[in-house]
Specification:
alpha+beta; 5 helices; 7 strands; globular; binds zinc ion
Length: 170
C-alpha cells in the first residue's frame, strides 16, 4: 500500500528541487508547515489599496501600527503583514471605544496536525492567546484572494481593539 497521497508526493518533489522551503512550527496543539518566503513575498507585493477601505478596516490597520512586541513577533514569524490582505470584521458591541474584531489571514503552507473544526469549536479549543488576540489555524479556507499561492492555511482570530481614529464610528 502506498502511504503517500498525490499531494504529498508533489510537495516532496518540489522540496527536492529546492523550489519550496517549508518550515515546521508548533503553536499549542497545532503543527503547521509553512513556506515563509512565499508568504512574506505575497504580503510585501500586496497593496493595501486593494483591500477594504471602510472606517472599520482603517481603524483595525491603525491599531496594527501599535501592536505589542509579542504580537508583532507572532505575525512576523508567520510572514504576515497584519495590515494587509486579511478580512477584518468589526462586530458592533455597542461600545464606541472598544471594538470586537473577528477575522482571518492566509499563509502559504498546511496544517499537519492539531484541532480541527474551528468554526464550531472555537470556544473549546486551546487557542493561541496574545494580548486580546486569540488565534487558531483553520484548514477551511474562506475569502482567499485569487492570486494567493497554494497550499494555503488560514489563520483565524478574534481581538478586542480600541477605536483610535479621530473620526467616530457610524
Ligand atoms: Zn472594511
Amino acid at each position: 500500500m502506498n502511504p503517500w497521497t498525490l499531494d504529498e508526493i508533489w510537495l516532496m518533489r518540489l522540496k527536492e528541487e529546492g523550489a519550496i522551503h517549508l518550515i515546521q512550527m508548533q503553536f499549542n496543539e497545532w503543527i503547521i508547515e509553512i513556506d515563509l518566503e512565499r508568504t512574506k513575498q505575497y504580503y510585501s507585493n500586496h497593496k493595501i489599496e486593494e483591500d477594504c477601505s471602510c472606517l472599520y478596516c482603517d481603524n483595525y490597520r491603525a491599531n496594527c501600527e501599535m501592536l505589542s512586541p509579542p504580537l508583532k513577533e507572532f505575525f512576523y514569524q508567520l510572514g504576515i503583514d497584519p495590515r494587509k490582505e486579511g478580512e477584518f470584521m468589526d462586530l458592533n458591541t455597542g461600545d464606541d471605544k472598544l471594538r470586537s474584531i473577528q477575522g482571518m489571514y492566509h499563509i502559504v503552507g498546511r496544517v499537519l496536525s492539531g484541532p480541527d473544526d474551528l468554526d464550531s469549536k472555537w470556544n473549546e479549543i486551546d487557542l493561541i492567546k496574545i494580548d486580546t488576540y486569540k488565534f487558531g489555524f483553520n484548514r477551511q479556507i474562506y475569502c482567499l484572494p485569487e492570486d494567493f499561492p497554494t497550499p494555503t492555511v488560514q489563520l483565524d482570530f478574534t481581538a478586542v481593539i480600541p477605536w483610535v481614529l479621530e473620526i467616530k464610528p457610524e
